[in-house]
Specification:
Elements lengths: L9 E7 L4 E6 L5 E3 L9 E4 L6 E3 L16 H7 L2
Antiparallel strand pairs: 1-2, 3-4, 4-5
Length: about 80
């Protein structure tokens, strides 16, 4: 299994109950692309930048949770940096 640790800031999460999908938006280019329109477990993907690694299979993500009871927008923004 290929493991590439990259940190992305999640900017929005929406759920489409009809489709059974969750869309996660990030603040930057993810750095990879699907190389096929087929939506299968063995869909080929490729890194868009060096080293241009190619792979087949599911993408797996770990989402770290930040919990805060602070409602000050400036301090919350500082946590995201």
């Amino acid at each position: 299994m290929l493991h590439i640790p990259i940190n992305y800031l999640i900017t929005n999460v929406t759920r489409d109950e009809a489709e059974g999908l969750t869309k996660i938006e990030i603040d930057m280019d993810p750095g990879f692309a699907y190389m096929s329109e087929a939506s299968t477990a063995a869909r080929p993907s490729q890194m868009l930048y060096y080293p241009g690694t190619k792979w087949k299979g599911q993408h797996m993500f770990r989402i770290d949770t930040i919990v805060t009871n602070n409602s000050n927008p400036k301090e919350i923004a500082a946590l995201k940096k």
